[in-house]
Amino acid sequence: MIDLAVGTSSGGLTVLAKFHQKWPVSHCASVFETLARRCFSTSGSALGKLKAVVKYITSDAMYDERFLEGALRENFPGHLFGYIPGTASGAKVALTATSGGNERSIFTNYNGSAQPTGYTVVRPENNEDEASLWQAARATTAAPIFFKPITVDGQEYWDGGLGFPNPIELAMWESTRIWDKNISRDVVISLGTGEASKDLPKRKTHSIQRLWTSFMDFLDGHTRYGDIRNGLDEQRRQDFFRLNIELPFPIRLDDVQSIPLQKEQIHLRPQGQLIEVATALLVSNFYFQLDTSPTYDGGFYLCEGSIRCRGIYKDIVNALTTLYQPDMEFVTANETLTSLDLQGCETNCHNIATLGAGHRKEDKRLSQIYAMERPENPELPDMFQITQKKVSG
After folding, report:
1. CA 64 to CA 148: how far, in whole Å?
2. What does the alpha-carbon distance between residue 45 and residue 71 come to, in Å, rounded to a whole number?
3. Most buried residue, 102, 114, 137, 234, by CB count within 10 Å?
4. For 11-20, what is each residue's pLDDT tens digit?
5. CB atoms < 10 A from the CB of 178, how many?
6. Average pLDDT for residues 283-309, to the nearest whole number?
7. Among the listed residues 189, 201, 199, 192, the one whose alpha carbon sits nearest the alpha carbon of residue 246
């Protein structure tokens, strides 16, 4: 269902685990918590903090990277790029990193149409020199101060967040390298790592403090997402989603004692937006395909085609009916085209409905069809009583 997943820093580990390794979410959470406690085991005590400071002064890193590398080798064997026997092709994956001279780089499991401008795709000439999974994971998580950089094929790499605080913009750039740049993106989801409220300073700040605050704002993925969203028109904004949680206070990367708090904040978060995102993803599996060439008649184009499903129809419909009543329709802005058949296909039904629709000559959005769902749960917010989401195309 996800065609392209891009991750920065800890988000890079999430992308690798969920979309490349195809781990269940519960397994991802378990492994990541174990990894964090293993790497930052001494961060909570006063003695541990003192040791971290001393280590930083003597070796330019607060923590021993060998613990991180050992955990990554153990959980991410194999290579990121190349054929893996016995597996089916899945999502395209990219991990960000920052190389020497502050140059932005990405590790990918795919090839694009051309080398991009403004950042580099790490792709050695010899396939045997391709980065291992754990090396790509280590590169994107090499946070300055906390860990030393990693050297891959003679090049030094740091945390990708230094160049791509929020990789959503990179994901949009990469999608144009993989597919035709004129193809629209059905659903774009940005996952945050938590946002603490920013209180205005109650007294004057020094210039160095202001510079530090500005630098941290630059590295803030939530702020960067807002900048990107502001550049979208109203129609495109409907396809963009940001999932994040509010934190009572800023949490450091090595604060493993706050993991239970972060879990609690996730579970306490209202579910309305999650339902909206799930609906958008599920509905994007449907698309309109012309069966014959459009014919022009009396100021209208007559378009005959079918609504099809690119995934396993039964699984997608079952997921939709878990969220909504079995009363869903495909509609345009002016009319209902057909109902979604919930019983007609037992396994994988690609052809959902055949229909014809007339469009004026100036109407260029022939495939903009909407799926309407009516929720079964009367306790859901009013915004879900009638929900419209765009199908693919």
Report:
1. 8
2. 22
3. 137
4. 999 999 999 9
5. 17
6. 86
7. 192
**What pLDDT was estimated at residue 217?**
60
DSSP labels for 82-105? S--TT-----EEEEEEEEGGGEEE
> Which pLDDT score, from 0 to 100, does residue 371 have?
35
pTM attached to this predicted model: 0.79
Distance, in Å, from the CA atom of 237 to the CA atom of 305, rounded to the nearest integer, reads 28
Distance CA 317, CA 371 (A): 12
Instruction: Give 108 or 42, the one with higher predicted confidence.
Output: 108
What is the residue whose two structure tokens read 């991180």?
68
Half-sphere exposure of 284 (CA within 13 A, CB side): 17
Measured distance CA(366)–CA(350) in Å, rounded: 20
Task: Sort 248 into a burial class: Cβ within 10 Å, 0-12 / 13-18 / 19+.
Answer: exposed
pLDDT at 64: 87
Contact 30, 119 (CB under 8 A): no
- The CA-to-CA distance between both ends of the chain, in Å, stands at 15
The predicted structure's pLDDT at residue 24: 94
Alpha-carbon torsion (235, 236, 241, 246), positive or negative: negative
Q: Nearest-CA neighbor of 107 among 218, 221, 13, 2?
A: 13
Of 236, 319, 251, 334, whose CA–CA distance to 285 is shortest?
319
127: left (phi over 0), alpha (psi -120 to 50) or beta: alpha
CB 288 within 8 A of CB 194: no
- Could you read off the pLDDT of 46-81 as tens digits, one per residue? 666 677 777 777 777 888 899 999 999 999 998 888
Which pair of tokens denotes residue 214? 């500005």
Phi, psi angle pair for 245, to nearest 5°: -120, 155
Q: Are 357 and 290 in contact (CB under 8 A)?
A: no
CA distance 20 to 25: 13
Please give the single-letter amino acid code of residue 346.
Answer: E
SS3 content of the chain, % helix, strand, coil (to 5): 35, 20, 40
Q: Which domains does the chain have, with CATH numbers?
A: 4-269 (3.40.1090.10), 284-390 (no CATH)
Cα separation, 321 vs 377, in Å, equals: 11
Q: Check residues 259 and 61 and name the one with the higher pLDDT.
A: 259
